[in-house]
Amino acid sequence: MRSPLFLSSSFLLLTLYFSALRVAVSLAPKGEWTFVQNGTTGITGLEVILVSPTLILMFDRVLGDPLQIDGHQAWVELWNLETNTGFPLNAITDTFCASGALLSNGTMVSVGGQASELPPGVTVPPDADGRMGIRIFEPCADPAGLNCTLFEDPATLHLAANRWYTSAIRIFDGSLMIIGGTHEETPFYNTDPENSFEFFPPKDNGQTRFSPFLARTVPTNLFPRGFSLPDGKVFIVANNQSILYDIEAQTETILPTIPNGVHVTNPMDGTATLLPLSPPEFIPEVLVCGGSNFSDATPSEDLSSQDPASDQCTRITLTPEGIEKGWIIERMPEGRMMPEMVLLPNGQVLITNGAGTGYAAVASVGDPIGNSNADHPVLTPVFYDPDASLGSRFNREGLPTTDIARMYHSGVTLTPSGAIFLAGSNPNSGVVENATFNTEFRVQFLNPPFLSRSRPTVSRIPEKIAFNEPFTVDIDIPNDLNTDNLKVALMDMGFSTHAFHASSRLVFMEAQLTGNKKSLTIRAPPNNRVYPPGPAYIFVTVDDVTSTGTRVMVGSGAAPPVQDQGVPLPLASSAA
Ligand SMILES: [Cu+2]
């Protein structure tokens, strides 16, 4: 029979065991995130994409930004993360409300834009119509970007259709799928839609593909939110509807409608992300947050900048069972119009930016604030933990509040340091300085707590990684971190514009530490559908402390179209 002494000593042992566990976990302090303002842009950072480990490319419009090039106003700016200064690049066509993405060879392609209405006194090259615009930024070796240029030849290189407010995503063959766009007749709803897809480099002999889905989702279907899924299909959500699109079979499969009449695309911008994909099955889940549950049959002048934004998030698992269950509803701590979601290397999602009331677009509701259709900027970000249980996924642990509104025409991206870059915000038709919501030039970083402590360092990462192949890197892990909790993320930072982070992606990779914890063997994603071939950053997170991100090329690094060398996962045949 056990004595009370035995019981109490085993209890003591158990307590010690759990204390030790607790110590091992808590040694890595969660800590405080901080907003730090550093530098100012010369254009509004309304489109933001990381194009090298040290360079961010931003696009705006021909509207009188202060940055100058060749004796006229610039609307493209390259930002050096090492000096926190920017300088202009020359473009021919107007990149206002365009999209873009990186191709499989690392080339950045910007697509679409507007037909400029040039303000008096602004001198630019004569053909500034960017609606069919294609602009090419080749990777350039200089970390400071001094010899980098943007290539454009509108007469010979252009889209098949006019596309303003279009989206572009990289797909399994490393090319871009370009989705929908244009709202030329009204400044708010899409009354002149381009209900089609096209590709770059072109498929279908350069013809567009009609999309019944885009036709069904007017007038609230600008900047459709599309994601390349691990079976090669594309998920798209626009307005309050969603589909799976099979690029190869050219078929659309209708998925459940977003509940409660919530509209999630421009001009009623919610945002959406593909949640991190994990081995071995890489089951895709999509999270959609914010937007508006006011009717999109209401004329814009009868809508108000004070209409509360939706606090609804909905999540769907894109398997037959998940689709059968439909969208699962969750609630953010507050409503958000024009939020953005940033995937973090530890698998969390940061929801930032946006407004508590109103809409996107410029000066079109009955009571705009200056030119802003939105009001009550939401100044505190929030985390979404995809792995927590339903009802406890949102938290604000350690997150600060900013005093800079980031609403319409703002951009945000994760950087290789692990800090988040934030720029822009401009609801005005030009540069305005004395409004409630000014044209915003201040750059901010949201710095994670691990920036100020010793972090895991990873070295000897190969420049290129081949699908499904293992590779080994050196790693140095600070002693106070619990290596039982180690994650390796392969990330595309995406292209940020209009509350959407197109092509943003996080694929976790299987990883094995050696006995001495000095090297790490990692297995690359199984194929080009799980991670569309192209540039990526590898981050290693140990005990919630993340290394800096190292750029790699996933796949051959060849220009698209590449031969589809991937083996579709079983999911391919099981999609609804
Ligand atoms: Cu816009």
Q: Overview of this structure, please?
A:
It comes from Lentinula lateritia. Residues 78-450 form the Glyoxal oxidase N-terminal domain. Keywords: Signal. Residues 557-576 are annotated as: Disordered. With 576 residues, the protein is mainly beta. The chain is 7% helix and 34% strand. A hairpin with a 2-residue loop joins strand 16 (234-238) and strand 17. The longest helix has 23 residues, at 4-26. The protein is globular. The chain starts with a helix and ends with a helix. 52% of the residues are buried. Bound molecules: copper (II) ion. Copper (II) ion is lined by residues 97, 409, 498.
What value does the Rg take, in angstroms?
A: 23 Å
Strand content: 25-35%
Distance between the termini: 60 Å
The structure class reads mainly beta
On the 0 to 100 scale, the average pLDDT is 91
Quick one: overall form? Answer: globular
- Give the number of DSSP strands: 43
- Continuous helix count: 4
Low confidence ranges: 1-29, 562-576
Q: Biggest sheet: strands, sense, closure?
A: 6 strands, antiparallel
* Helicity range: under 10%
Quaternary structure classification: single chain
- Biggest sheet, spatial arrangement of strands: 7-6-3-2-36-37
Keywords: Signal
Domain Glyoxal oxidase N-terminal: 78-450
Domain Galactose oxidase-like Early set: 455-554
Protein name: Glyoxal oxidase
